[in-house]
Automatic annotation (TrEMBL):
Zn(2+) binds at H147, H151, H157. One of its GO terms (biological process) is proteolysis. Binds 1 zinc ion per subunit. It is an enzyme of class 3 (hydrolase). This is Metalloendopeptidase. InterPro entries: Astacin-like_dom (IPR034035), MetalloPept_cat_dom_sf (IPR024079), Peptidase_M12A (IPR001506), Peptidase_Metallo (IPR006026). It holds the Pfam family Astacin.
């Protein structure tokens, strides 16, 4: 199973900056980077919210640094995304330009020609900055930057919640086998009793990874019946997303 995780493809992040309204968050991310190939626990981590307090950032202030090769607009988009966490939660992101505070790990926003992603949660045994790599396309979207920030704080994708089979139905026949692991429901995590959120910025779109884009790969279960509806978005975190962070970090 670990080898399947390693084989996640470089997704549509290599495309140009033209945005399509129907695109879901999955069209921006690069899963090879998001779940690190050196992490022996990678396959076990495709869940929703980390339960271990060791994988939550210590304290509620997190320092970050932006690469000098970002354009002015890209810098502004990162700052906008980071500021939203201080406005909506008790997690404060503070930008550093000089030396990093002694003894403090920080987030480093780097630029990549074709990759977008980060490792999930605080990495207590790692050294150096926690990297978030973004290409020009991802940097045009503050919601994508917020999505990656939710990952580094400890959230996984909504459709991987352990209770997801009560709320969605996955059509594996319409999904290439190499992407099946992206749709696995996992246990050993917590949802913080936050209701399932079809509008989460962490949720895939209804047609994610579809062999036949005219047919959904994810259907909502309403009253026990599978129905087609829109889900996921790239506008920004939902109230449910913010609530999980508030509960994780004891806001």
């Amino acid at each position: 199973m670990f080898l399947q995780t390693v084989r996640y493809l470089l997704l549509a992040a290599i495309l140009g900056p033209i945005l399509v309204a129907s695109e879901g968050i999955e069209s921006y991310e690069n899963y090879y980077n998001e779940i690190h190939v050196d992490d022996e626990q990678a396959e076990a981590k495709t869940r929703n919210a980390l339960t271990s307090p060791l994988q939550r950032w210590p304290g509620n202030k997190i320092f970050y640094r932006i690469s000098t090769d970002y354009s002015d607009q890209e810098v502004a988009n990162v700052r906008t995304a980071m500021a939203s966490f201080g406005e909506q939660t008790c997690v404060q992101f503070e930008e550093i330009e000089g030396s990093a505070p002694a003894g403090k790990r920080y987030v480093s926003f780097k630029k990549s020609p074709n990759m977008c992603g980060t490792r999930v949660g605080y990495q207590p045994l790692s050294f150096g900055p926690h990297e978030v790599v973004l290409n020009e396309r991802c940097l045009t979207m503050p919601a994508v930057i917020q999505h990656e920030t939710l990952h580094l704080l400890g959230l996984f994708h909504e459709q991987s919640r352990p209770d997801r089979d009560e709320y969605v139905q996955i059509d594996y026949d319409n999904i290439p086998r190499k992407y099946w692991s992206q749709f696995m429901a996992m246990d050993q995590t917590t949802t913080f009793n936050v209701p399932y959120d079809y509008e989460s910025v962490m949720h895939y779109s209804k047609n994610a990874f579809a062999k036949d884009p005219a047919k959904p790969t994810i259907r909502a279960l309403i009253g026990g019946k599978a129905v087609e509806r829109e889900m996921g978005q790239v506008r920004g975190p939902s109230e449910g997303d913010w609530t999980k962070i508030r509960l994780m970090y004891k806001c």
